[in-house]
């Protein structure tokens, strides 16, 4: 039996990100949305995610930018974010244990909630403009 450790290195981040997105790509519910949006740019997306999580968890400031705008127009709802979190939590728990693993799940939860809120806000604002 493998003893799980915490997320401590870029190698750990890459393992988490690669494992998670491999599951996302195959998921019947959210996979088609990601695969259509990202297309053949998965390597570029994964590199960006490595830098994002390295900045968030390891305080190595390798990511800059705003993560929300690329997600603003996605055809997603709360159920999609719930599934994303289900996969992220299960992946994290299967690979790591410790304070940074818990921090990753907390940050992912907060991000999912914020993205869902903002997408709904912009969607409702656009609908109200049409009225």
CATH T-level topology: Globin-like
Mean pLDDT: 91
Structural class: mainly alpha
Return the CATH class.
Answer: Mainly Alpha
Uncertain segments of ≥5 residues (pLDDT<50)?
A: none
- Listing every helix as H and every strand as E from the N terminus to the C terminus, the arrangement reads HHHHH
What is the CATH homology-level superfamily? Globins
CATH A-level architecture = Orthogonal Bundle
If helices are DSSP runs of H or I spanning 4 or more residues, what is the number of helices? 5
How many DSSP E strands? 0
Instruction: Give the overall shape.
Output: globular
Main beta sheet: strand number and arrangement? none
Instruction: Give the termini separation.
Output: 60 Å
Whole-number count of domains: 1
User: How much helix is in the residues?
Assistant: over 70%
Strand content: under 5%
Walk me through the structure.
With 131 residues, the protein is an all-alpha fold. The protein has one domain (10-130): Globin-like, CATH 1.10.490. 70% of the residues lie in helices and 0% in strands. It has five helices and no strands. The chain has helices at residues 10-26, 31-38, 42-58, 78-95, 99-130. The chain starts with 9 loop residues before the first helix and ends with a helix. The mean pLDDT is 91.
């Amino acid at each position: 039996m493998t003893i799980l450790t915490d997320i401590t290195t870029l190698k750990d981040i890459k393992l988490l990100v690669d494992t998670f997105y491999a599951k996302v790509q195959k998921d019947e519910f959210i996979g088609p949305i990601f695969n259509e949006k990202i297309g053949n740019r998965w390597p570029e997306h994964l590199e960006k995610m490595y830098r994002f999580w390295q900045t968030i968890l390891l305080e190595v400031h390798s990511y800059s930018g705003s993560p929300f705008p690329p997600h603003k127009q996605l055809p997603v709802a709360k159920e999609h974010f719930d599934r994303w979190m289900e996969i992220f939590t299960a992946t994290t728990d299967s690979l790591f244990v410790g304070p940074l693993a818990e921090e990753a799940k907390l940050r992912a939860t907060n991000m999912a909630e914020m993205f869902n809120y903002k997408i709904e806000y912009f969607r409702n604002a656009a609908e109200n403009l049409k009225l």
